[in-house]
UniProtKB/TrEMBL annotation:
PANTHER family, sorted: STRESS UP-REGULATED NOD 19 PROTEIN
Record-given protein name: Uncharacterized protein
Region (Disordered): 36-101
InterPro entries: Stress_up-reg_Nod19
Protein backbone atom coordinates (compact mmCIF):
# COMPACT_ATOMS: atom_id res chain seq x y z
CA UNK A 1 0.00 0.00 0.00
CA UNK A 2 1.35 3.44 -0.95
CA UNK A 3 -1.03 5.33 1.44
CA UNK A 4 -3.21 6.73 -1.30
CA UNK A 5 -6.64 8.01 -0.19
CA UNK A 6 -8.26 4.86 -1.57
CA UNK A 7 -5.92 2.70 0.47
CA UNK A 8 -6.38 4.60 3.74
CA UNK A 9 -10.20 4.54 3.45
CA UNK A 10 -10.26 0.76 3.13
CA UNK A 11 -12.33 -1.16 5.73
CA UNK A 12 -9.17 -2.51 7.38
CA UNK A 13 -6.12 -0.29 6.73
CA UNK A 14 -2.70 -1.86 6.40
CA UNK A 15 -0.20 -1.32 9.24
CA UNK A 16 1.77 1.15 7.15
CA UNK A 17 -1.09 3.69 6.86
CA UNK A 18 -3.05 2.76 10.00
CA UNK A 19 -0.89 4.98 12.21
CA UNK A 20 -1.56 8.35 10.54
CA UNK A 21 -5.20 7.49 9.88
CA UNK A 22 -5.95 6.44 13.45
CA UNK A 23 -4.21 9.52 14.84
CA UNK A 24 -6.33 11.75 12.58
CA UNK A 25 -9.57 10.09 13.73
CA UNK A 26 -8.46 10.33 17.35
CA UNK A 27 -7.66 14.03 17.05
CA UNK A 28 -11.07 14.81 15.63
CA UNK A 29 -12.83 12.64 18.20
CA UNK A 30 -10.88 14.21 21.07
CA UNK A 31 -12.01 17.67 20.00
CA UNK A 32 -15.62 16.50 20.01
CA UNK A 33 -15.14 14.85 23.40
CA UNK A 34 -13.59 18.03 24.80
CA UNK A 35 -16.56 20.08 23.60
CA UNK A 36 -18.97 17.59 25.15
CA UNK A 37 -16.95 17.59 28.36
CA UNK A 38 -17.16 21.35 28.66
CA UNK A 39 -20.93 21.26 28.14
CA UNK A 40 -21.36 18.49 30.70
CA UNK A 41 -19.13 20.33 33.19
CA UNK A 42 -21.20 23.50 32.82
CA UNK A 43 -24.45 21.59 33.39
CA UNK A 44 -23.00 19.77 36.39
CA UNK A 45 -21.77 23.02 37.93
CA UNK A 46 -25.23 24.61 37.49
CA UNK A 47 -26.96 21.56 38.98
CA UNK A 48 -24.46 21.44 41.84
CA UNK A 49 -25.08 25.10 42.68
CA UNK A 50 -28.83 24.48 42.67
CA UNK A 51 -28.47 21.42 44.93
CA UNK A 52 -26.13 23.19 47.31
CA UNK A 53 -28.56 26.09 47.57
CA UNK A 54 -31.36 23.69 48.55
CA UNK A 55 -29.49 21.08 50.58
CA UNK A 56 -26.51 22.88 52.06
CA UNK A 57 -22.88 21.78 51.63
CA UNK A 58 -22.10 18.15 50.69
CA UNK A 59 -21.55 15.75 53.55
CA UNK A 60 -18.25 14.32 52.33
CA UNK A 61 -15.25 15.34 50.23
CA UNK A 62 -15.15 14.47 46.52
CA UNK A 63 -13.58 11.14 45.45
CA UNK A 64 -9.79 10.87 45.73
CA UNK A 65 -9.15 11.02 42.01
CA UNK A 66 -10.40 14.62 41.90
CA UNK A 67 -8.21 15.86 44.72
CA UNK A 68 -4.92 17.44 43.60
CA UNK A 69 -3.16 16.30 46.79
CA UNK A 70 -3.91 12.65 46.01
CA UNK A 71 -2.84 13.12 42.40
CA UNK A 72 0.53 14.48 43.52
CA UNK A 73 1.09 11.63 45.99
CA UNK A 74 0.39 9.02 43.33
CA UNK A 75 2.40 10.71 40.60
CA UNK A 76 -0.39 12.37 38.67
CA UNK A 77 -3.66 11.15 37.22
CA UNK A 78 -4.25 7.46 36.40
CA UNK A 79 -4.36 8.29 32.66
CA UNK A 80 -1.01 10.07 32.88
CA UNK A 81 0.62 7.09 34.55
CA UNK A 82 -0.82 4.69 31.97
CA UNK A 83 -0.12 6.82 28.90
CA UNK A 84 2.78 9.03 29.83
CA UNK A 85 4.60 8.70 26.45
CA UNK A 86 1.46 9.67 24.52
CA UNK A 87 0.60 13.06 26.04
CA UNK A 88 3.78 15.08 26.45
CA UNK A 89 1.82 18.21 27.45
CA UNK A 90 0.34 16.64 30.60
CA UNK A 91 2.94 18.32 32.80
CA UNK A 92 1.69 21.75 31.67
CA UNK A 93 -1.96 20.80 32.25
CA UNK A 94 -1.58 19.75 35.90
CA UNK A 95 -2.12 23.28 37.13
CA UNK A 96 -5.34 23.82 35.19
CA UNK A 97 -8.85 23.96 36.74
CA UNK A 98 -10.69 20.74 37.50
CA UNK A 99 -12.99 20.95 34.46
CA UNK A 100 -9.97 21.27 32.14
CA UNK A 101 -8.22 18.37 33.89
CA UNK A 102 -11.33 16.27 33.20
CA UNK A 103 -11.10 17.24 29.53
CA UNK A 104 -7.43 16.21 29.56
CA UNK A 105 -8.41 12.75 30.75
CA UNK A 106 -10.88 12.52 27.88
CA UNK A 107 -8.12 13.49 25.40
CA UNK A 108 -5.83 10.81 26.80
CA UNK A 109 -8.58 8.21 26.63
CA UNK A 110 -9.23 9.10 23.00
CA UNK A 111 -5.55 8.75 22.06
CA UNK A 112 -5.12 5.48 23.93
CA UNK A 113 -8.21 3.84 22.49
CA UNK A 114 -7.49 4.95 18.94
CA UNK A 115 -3.82 3.98 19.20
CA UNK A 116 -4.68 0.44 20.25
CA UNK A 117 -7.68 -0.02 17.94
CA UNK A 118 -7.37 -2.15 14.85
CA UNK A 119 -10.47 -0.67 13.25
CA UNK A 120 -10.53 3.13 13.19
CA UNK A 121 -14.27 3.66 12.43
CA UNK A 122 -15.26 1.52 15.43
CA UNK A 123 -12.92 3.51 17.67
CA UNK A 124 -14.46 6.76 16.45
CA UNK A 125 -17.97 5.53 17.26
CA UNK A 126 -16.90 4.58 20.76
CA UNK A 127 -15.26 7.94 21.31
CA UNK A 128 -18.33 9.85 20.16
CA UNK A 129 -20.68 8.06 22.59
CA UNK A 130 -21.97 10.39 25.36
CA UNK A 131 -20.49 9.90 28.84
CA UNK A 132 -22.55 7.97 31.36
CA UNK A 133 -24.40 10.07 33.97
CA UNK A 134 -23.37 9.67 37.60
CA UNK A 135 -26.28 9.52 40.05
CA UNK A 136 -25.87 11.36 43.35
CA UNK A 137 -28.19 10.71 46.26
CA UNK A 138 -29.18 13.89 48.09
CA UNK A 139 -28.67 13.56 51.84
CA UNK A 140 -30.82 15.33 54.44
CA UNK A 141 -29.85 18.91 55.10
CA UNK A 142 -27.32 19.36 57.88
CA UNK A 143 -27.13 22.71 59.64
CA UNK A 144 -24.37 23.62 62.05
CA UNK A 145 -25.96 24.92 65.26
CA UNK A 146 -24.76 25.86 68.71
CA UNK A 147 -24.47 22.17 69.66
CA UNK A 148 -22.79 21.02 66.45
CA UNK A 149 -24.38 19.30 63.46
CA UNK A 150 -28.13 18.74 63.32
CA UNK A 151 -30.49 16.95 60.96
CA UNK A 152 -33.87 17.98 59.57
CA UNK A 153 -36.05 14.86 59.14
CA UNK A 154 -39.55 13.99 57.99
CA UNK A 155 -41.50 10.87 58.96
CA UNK A 156 -45.00 9.72 58.07
CA UNK A 157 -47.00 7.50 60.42
CA UNK A 158 -50.43 5.85 60.45
CA UNK A 159 -52.77 5.23 63.36
CA UNK A 160 -54.44 1.92 64.01
CA UNK A 161 -57.33 1.13 61.70
CA UNK A 162 -60.83 2.27 62.74
CA UNK A 163 -63.67 0.33 61.09
CA UNK A 164 -67.05 2.02 60.63
CA UNK A 165 -70.33 1.15 58.94
CA UNK A 166 -72.59 3.86 57.44
CA UNK A 167 -73.98 6.04 60.23
CA UNK A 168 -71.43 4.89 62.81
CA UNK A 169 -68.86 7.10 64.49
CA UNK A 170 -65.70 6.78 66.56
CA UNK A 171 -64.46 8.97 69.41
CA UNK A 172 -61.16 7.59 70.69
CA UNK A 173 -59.63 8.27 74.08
CA UNK A 174 -55.97 9.37 74.22
CA UNK A 175 -55.25 6.95 77.08
CA UNK A 176 -56.17 3.98 74.90
CA UNK A 177 -55.06 5.37 71.51
CA UNK A 178 -51.25 5.62 71.52
CA UNK A 179 -49.58 7.12 68.48
CA UNK A 180 -46.11 6.47 67.09
CA UNK A 181 -43.55 9.26 67.34
CA UNK A 182 -39.76 9.42 66.78
CA UNK A 183 -37.72 7.45 69.30
CA UNK A 184 -34.16 7.58 70.53
CA UNK A 185 -33.73 10.89 72.30
CA UNK A 186 -34.78 14.50 72.42
CA UNK A 187 -35.92 16.34 69.29
CA UNK A 188 -37.74 19.47 68.12
CA UNK A 189 -40.97 19.35 66.11
CA UNK A 190 -40.96 22.00 63.38
CA UNK A 191 -44.06 21.03 61.37
CA UNK A 192 -47.12 18.78 61.52
CA UNK A 193 -49.97 17.83 59.20
CA UNK A 194 -52.52 15.04 59.02
CA UNK A 195 -55.53 13.64 57.20
CA UNK A 196 -57.90 10.67 57.17
CA UNK A 197 -57.11 7.99 54.59
CA UNK A 198 -58.53 4.69 53.42
CA UNK A 199 -57.34 1.85 55.65
CA UNK A 200 -56.37 -0.38 52.71
CA UNK A 201 -55.27 1.91 49.88
CA UNK A 202 -53.98 4.71 52.16
CA UNK A 203 -55.51 7.22 49.73
CA UNK A 204 -57.21 10.45 50.85
CA UNK A 205 -60.85 9.93 51.78
CA UNK A 206 -63.41 12.69 50.99
CA UNK A 207 -65.39 14.30 53.80
CA UNK A 208 -68.61 13.23 52.09
CA UNK A 209 -67.73 9.64 52.99
CA UNK A 210 -66.06 10.06 56.39
CA UNK A 211 -66.40 13.39 58.21
CA UNK A 212 -63.32 14.44 60.16
CA UNK A 213 -64.88 16.33 63.06
CA UNK A 214 -61.48 16.70 64.69
CA UNK A 215 -58.31 14.89 65.63
CA UNK A 216 -55.96 16.08 68.37
CA UNK A 217 -52.63 14.85 69.73
CA UNK A 218 -51.73 15.12 73.40
CA UNK A 219 -48.75 14.07 75.51
CA UNK A 220 -48.22 13.36 79.17
CA UNK A 221 -46.21 16.52 79.95
CA UNK A 222 -47.87 19.29 77.91
CA UNK A 223 -49.94 21.97 79.65
CA UNK A 224 -51.98 24.60 77.83
CA UNK A 225 -51.10 27.99 79.31
CA UNK A 226 -53.89 29.80 77.43
CA UNK A 227 -56.94 27.72 78.36
CA UNK A 228 -56.97 25.17 81.17
CA UNK A 229 -58.54 21.85 80.27
CA UNK A 230 -57.77 22.06 76.54
CA UNK A 231 -54.39 20.33 76.62
CA UNK A 232 -53.96 19.91 72.88
CA UNK A 233 -50.54 20.02 71.23
CA UNK A 234 -51.60 19.54 67.61
CA UNK A 235 -55.08 19.23 66.23
CA UNK A 236 -57.34 20.22 63.39
CA UNK A 237 -60.49 18.93 61.75
CA UNK A 238 -62.04 18.79 58.31
CA UNK A 239 -59.47 21.28 56.97
CA UNK A 240 -56.48 19.20 58.12
CA UNK A 241 -55.20 17.92 54.76
CA UNK A 242 -54.93 21.48 53.42
CA UNK A 243 -53.79 23.23 56.62
CA UNK A 244 -50.35 22.10 57.86
CA UNK A 245 -48.97 23.66 61.03
CA UNK A 246 -45.41 24.86 60.36
CA UNK A 247 -42.99 26.83 62.52
CA UNK A 248 -40.60 29.39 61.02
CA UNK A 249 -36.92 28.53 60.67
CA UNK A 250 -35.01 28.51 63.94
CA UNK A 251 -37.99 27.52 66.13
CA UNK A 252 -39.18 24.13 67.35
CA UNK A 253 -41.47 22.46 69.87
CA UNK A 254 -39.17 20.50 72.23
CA UNK A 255 -39.96 16.86 73.00
CA UNK A 256 -38.08 15.14 75.80
CA UNK A 257 -37.04 11.50 75.69
CA UNK A 258 -39.74 9.21 77.06
CA UNK A 259 -42.67 11.50 76.22
CA UNK A 260 -45.86 9.49 75.65
CA UNK A 261 -48.41 10.55 73.03
CA UNK A 262 -52.09 9.76 72.52
CA UNK A 263 -54.82 10.77 70.08
CA UNK A 264 -58.46 11.81 70.32
CA UNK A 265 -59.94 11.06 66.88
CA UNK A 266 -63.58 11.91 66.15
CA UNK A 267 -64.90 10.53 62.84
CA UNK A 268 -68.43 10.06 61.50
CA UNK A 269 -69.32 7.97 58.46
CA UNK A 270 -72.18 9.85 56.81
CA UNK A 271 -73.07 7.65 53.84
CA UNK A 272 -76.64 6.38 53.39
CA UNK A 273 -78.28 8.44 56.15
CA UNK A 274 -82.03 8.50 56.65
CA UNK A 275 -84.05 11.57 55.63
CA UNK A 276 -85.80 13.22 52.71
CA UNK A 277 -83.03 15.83 52.45
CA UNK A 278 -79.66 14.02 52.42
CA UNK A 279 -77.72 17.26 53.03
CA UNK A 280 -79.80 18.07 56.11
CA UNK A 281 -79.32 14.52 57.40
CA UNK A 282 -75.54 14.85 57.03
CA UNK A 283 -75.58 18.25 58.78
CA UNK A 284 -77.51 16.84 61.76
CA UNK A 285 -75.16 13.88 62.05
CA UNK A 286 -71.97 15.95 61.81
CA UNK A 287 -73.23 18.52 64.34
CA UNK A 288 -74.33 15.94 66.95
CA UNK A 289 -78.07 16.65 66.75
CA UNK A 290 -80.37 14.65 68.99
CA UNK A 291 -82.19 11.73 67.40
CA UNK A 292 -84.18 8.90 68.99
CA UNK A 293 -82.14 5.76 69.47
CA UNK A 294 -78.78 7.49 69.91
CA UNK A 295 -78.33 6.17 73.43
CA UNK A 296 -79.26 6.83 77.04
CA UNK A 297 -77.07 9.94 77.39
CA UNK A 298 -78.39 11.61 74.23
CA UNK A 299 -81.60 13.53 74.90
CA UNK A 300 -83.13 16.89 74.02
CA UNK A 301 -81.16 18.62 76.78
CA UNK A 302 -77.86 17.27 75.47
CA UNK A 303 -78.68 18.12 71.85
CA UNK A 304 -75.51 19.16 69.99
CA UNK A 305 -73.09 17.87 72.63
CA UNK A 306 -70.63 14.99 72.57
CA UNK A 307 -73.21 12.95 74.49
CA UNK A 308 -74.99 12.58 71.15
CA UNK A 309 -71.92 11.80 69.05
CA UNK A 310 -68.88 11.67 71.29
CA UNK A 311 -67.39 10.04 74.35
CA UNK A 312 -70.77 8.81 75.67
CA UNK A 313 -71.48 6.60 72.67
CA UNK A 314 -70.44 3.35 74.34
CA UNK A 315 -71.94 3.99 77.78
CA UNK A 316 -75.48 2.76 77.15
CA UNK A 317 -77.06 0.11 79.35
CA UNK A 318 -76.20 -2.55 76.80
CA UNK A 319 -72.59 -1.42 76.61
CA UNK A 320 -72.75 -1.38 72.81
CA UNK A 321 -72.12 1.45 70.36
CA UNK A 322 -75.30 3.53 70.51
CA UNK A 323 -74.61 6.93 68.87
CA UNK A 324 -75.20 5.74 65.34
CA UNK A 325 -76.91 8.24 63.05
CA UNK A 326 -80.11 6.76 61.54
CA UNK A 327 -79.55 5.18 58.12
CA UNK A 328 -81.97 4.54 55.28
CA UNK A 329 -83.48 1.12 54.73
CA UNK A 330 -81.42 -1.20 52.59
CA UNK A 331 -78.10 0.53 53.28
CA UNK A 332 -75.21 -1.89 53.66
CA UNK A 333 -73.93 -2.49 57.18
CA UNK A 334 -70.47 -3.53 56.01
CA UNK A 335 -67.68 -1.82 57.89
CA UNK A 336 -64.77 -0.06 56.19
CA UNK A 337 -61.39 0.79 57.69
CA UNK A 338 -59.89 4.26 58.05
CA UNK A 339 -56.61 5.57 59.45
CA UNK A 340 -55.16 8.87 60.57
CA UNK A 341 -52.11 9.67 58.45
CA UNK A 342 -49.80 12.25 59.99
CA UNK A 343 -46.50 13.65 58.75
CA UNK A 344 -43.98 15.04 61.19
CA UNK A 345 -41.10 17.42 60.44
CA UNK A 346 -38.51 17.40 63.21
CA UNK A 347 -34.84 17.97 63.98
CA UNK A 348 -32.33 15.95 65.98
CA UNK A 349 -29.13 17.26 67.52
CA UNK A 350 -30.12 20.89 66.90
CA UNK A 351 -30.15 23.93 69.15
CA UNK A 352 -33.39 25.72 68.24
CA UNK A 353 -35.42 28.38 69.98
CA UNK A 354 -38.00 26.40 72.02
CA UNK A 355 -41.64 27.38 71.62
CA UNK A 356 -44.73 26.58 73.64
CA UNK A 357 -47.99 25.71 71.91
CA UNK A 358 -51.31 26.82 73.33
CA UNK A 359 -54.98 26.94 72.36
CA UNK A 360 -57.18 29.94 73.06
CA UNK A 361 -60.83 28.99 72.53
CA UNK A 362 -63.87 31.22 72.18
CA UNK A 363 -66.18 31.76 73.92
CA UNK A 364 -64.28 31.81 77.21
CA UNK A 365 -62.23 28.64 76.64
CA UNK A 366 -65.27 26.50 75.75
CA UNK A 367 -64.48 23.23 73.96
CA UNK A 368 -67.52 23.78 71.70
CA UNK A 369 -70.65 25.94 71.51
CA UNK A 370 -73.81 26.53 69.45
CA UNK A 371 -74.86 29.34 67.12
CA UNK A 372 -78.58 29.88 66.51
CA UNK A 373 -80.39 30.91 63.32
CA UNK A 374 -80.87 34.68 63.03
CA UNK A 375 -81.79 36.13 59.64
CA UNK A 376 -82.05 39.67 61.05
CA UNK A 377 -78.40 39.62 62.20
CA UNK A 378 -76.86 36.79 60.19
CA UNK A 379 -73.32 37.15 61.58
CA UNK A 380 -72.72 36.20 65.20
CA UNK A 381 -69.52 36.46 67.23
CA UNK A 382 -68.08 34.61 70.24
CA UNK A 383 -65.09 36.05 72.11
CA UNK A 384 -62.38 35.14 74.59
CA UNK A 385 -59.87 37.51 76.21
CA UNK A 386 -56.58 36.80 77.96
CA UNK A 387 -54.20 39.00 79.96
CA UNK A 388 -50.56 38.35 79.02
CA UNK A 389 -48.29 37.52 81.98
CA UNK A 390 -44.90 38.15 80.32
CA UNK A 391 -43.01 39.14 77.18
CA UNK A 392 -43.56 36.73 74.29
CA UNK A 393 -43.21 36.50 70.51
CA UNK A 394 -46.04 34.67 68.74
CA UNK A 395 -44.27 33.07 65.76
CA UNK A 396 -47.15 31.01 64.30
CA UNK A 397 -50.94 30.98 64.70
CA UNK A 398 -53.82 29.35 62.80
CA UNK A 399 -57.55 29.17 63.44
CA UNK A 400 -59.80 26.11 63.61
CA UNK A 401 -63.53 26.47 62.89
CA UNK A 402 -66.44 24.47 61.48
CA UNK A 403 -68.90 24.82 58.60
CA UNK A 404 -70.57 28.24 58.66
CA UNK A 405 -67.47 30.07 59.90
CA UNK A 406 -66.69 33.56 58.58
CA UNK A 407 -63.28 34.08 60.20
CA UNK A 408 -61.35 34.04 63.44
CA UNK A 409 -59.69 37.36 64.29
CA UNK A 410 -57.07 38.30 66.89
CA UNK A 411 -56.76 41.72 68.55
CA UNK A 412 -54.24 43.14 71.01
CA UNK A 413 -55.39 46.03 73.21
CA UNK A 414 -58.33 46.62 70.89
CA UNK A 415 -56.25 46.66 67.68
CA UNK A 416 -56.73 43.98 65.02
CA UNK A 417 -53.41 42.21 64.40
CA UNK A 418 -54.37 39.18 62.29
CA UNK A 419 -57.22 36.98 61.08
CA UNK A 420 -57.66 33.39 59.89
CA UNK A 421 -60.15 32.82 57.06
CA UNK A 422 -61.91 29.61 55.94
CA UNK A 423 -62.06 28.24 52.40
CA UNK A 424 -65.03 26.16 51.26
CA UNK A 425 -64.91 23.38 48.67
CA UNK A 426 -66.44 23.47 45.20
CA UNK A 427 -66.38 19.86 43.94
CA UNK A 428 -68.65 17.03 44.95
CA UNK A 429 -66.82 14.07 46.46
CA UNK A 430 -63.29 15.33 45.69
CA UNK A 431 -60.92 14.89 48.63
CA UNK A 432 -59.55 18.28 49.65
CA UNK A 433 -62.19 20.31 47.77
CA UNK A 434 -65.50 18.84 48.97
CA UNK A 435 -68.60 20.84 48.01
CA UNK A 436 -70.26 22.44 51.04
CA UNK A 437 -67.43 21.67 53.48
CA UNK A 438 -64.80 23.84 55.14
CA UNK A 439 -61.56 22.60 53.55
CA UNK A 440 -58.85 25.10 54.60
CA UNK A 441 -57.99 27.74 57.22
CA UNK A 442 -55.47 30.43 56.34
CA UNK A 443 -52.62 31.29 58.67
CA UNK A 444 -53.14 34.17 61.04
CA UNK A 445 -49.39 34.43 61.67
CA UNK A 446 -46.88 32.47 59.61
CA UNK A 447 -44.87 32.13 56.44
CA UNK A 448 -47.51 30.65 54.11
CA UNK A 449 -48.57 32.56 51.02
CA UNK A 450 -52.04 33.23 52.46
CA UNK A 451 -50.84 34.29 55.93
CA UNK A 452 -52.34 37.52 57.25
CA UNK A 453 -48.97 38.57 58.66
CA UNK A 454 -45.54 36.97 58.77
CA UNK A 455 -44.92 37.99 62.36
CA UNK A 456 -43.71 37.53 64.93
CA UNK A 457 -46.38 39.24 67.02
CA UNK A 458 -44.75 40.84 70.05
CA UNK A 459 -46.71 40.71 73.30
CA UNK A 460 -45.77 42.46 76.53
CA UNK A 461 -46.85 41.89 80.09
CA UNK A 462 -50.33 43.29 80.70
CA UNK A 463 -51.44 43.22 77.04
CA UNK A 464 -55.01 42.12 76.39
CA UNK A 465 -55.18 39.37 73.77
CA UNK A 466 -58.66 38.86 72.33
CA UNK A 467 -59.98 36.16 69.98
CA UNK A 468 -63.27 36.62 68.09
CA UNK A 469 -64.92 33.76 66.21
CA UNK A 470 -67.48 34.80 63.59
CA UNK A 471 -70.18 32.50 62.13
CA UNK A 472 -72.90 33.09 59.54
CA UNK A 473 -76.32 32.01 60.89
CA UNK A 474 -78.62 33.13 58.08
CA UNK A 475 -80.67 30.58 56.15
CA UNK A 476 -79.09 31.33 52.78
CA UNK A 477 -75.38 30.64 53.05
CA UNK A 478 -74.21 30.35 49.45
CA UNK A 479 -70.71 29.28 50.50
CA UNK A 480 -71.92 25.91 51.80
CA UNK A 481 -74.77 25.21 49.34
CA UNK A 482 -76.35 22.73 48.86
CA UNK A 483 -75.71 22.16 52.58
CA UNK A 484 -78.02 23.97 54.96
CA UNK A 485 -77.30 27.18 56.86
CA UNK A 486 -78.99 28.65 59.91
CA UNK A 487 -78.34 27.01 63.26
CA UNK A 488 -75.02 25.21 63.72
CA UNK A 489 -74.40 23.01 66.76
CA UNK A 490 -71.12 21.76 68.22
CA UNK A 491 -68.96 24.37 66.49
CA UNK A 492 -65.51 25.53 67.56
CA UNK A 493 -63.43 28.71 67.40
CA UNK A 494 -59.85 27.79 68.34
CA UNK A 495 -56.63 29.75 67.89
CA UNK A 496 -53.58 27.47 67.81
CA UNK A 497 -50.56 29.60 68.67
CA UNK A 498 -46.83 28.91 69.03
CA UNK A 499 -44.99 31.45 71.16
CA UNK A 500 -41.48 31.90 72.57
CA UNK A 501 -40.16 33.93 75.48
CA UNK A 502 -38.78 37.13 73.99
CA UNK A 503 -35.03 37.79 74.05
CA UNK A 504 -33.95 34.42 75.42
CA UNK A 505 -31.91 33.42 72.38
CA UNK A 506 -32.05 35.77 69.42
CA UNK A 507 -28.84 34.41 67.92
CA UNK A 508 -30.18 30.87 67.78
CA UNK A 509 -33.41 32.05 66.18
CA UNK A 510 -31.41 33.74 63.43
Amino acid sequence: CDCTPRCCCAPRPTPRCAGPRVRLVARRASHRIASRGRQVARRQRAEQKKKLGALGPPLSRPPWRYRPSARRRLGGSPWRRANAPVDRAQRRRRGRPRAQRANTRLHLAAWAMARRAAWAPAAALLLLSPPAAVARVAAPRRVVGASGRCQQLQDTYYSEEMRLAPGEMVFTKPETTPVTMPQGGEYYITGFEGEIVDGETLQSTPLTEIYDHHWILLNNVHKNRLCKGIEYVFGVGAESRNTPFDLPAGYGYPVAEGTEWGANIHLLRTEGLEGEDPYLAVKHCNECFYAPGKGDACNRQSNGTFQCCGDSCATGKTGKQSCKCPTAKGVSTERKGYKLKYTLNYTTGCDLEPVDIGVLAAPDCAAFYHVQRNNAEPVTVASAELSIDGAYDVVAATGHQHVGAVNLSVSVNGRLVCASYPTYGNQKGVAGDELGYLTHMSQCIGTAADAYTEGPLQLSKGDKLRVDGYYFVGDNDERIAPSKGGTHLNVMSYLYAAFAARGSSEARAQ
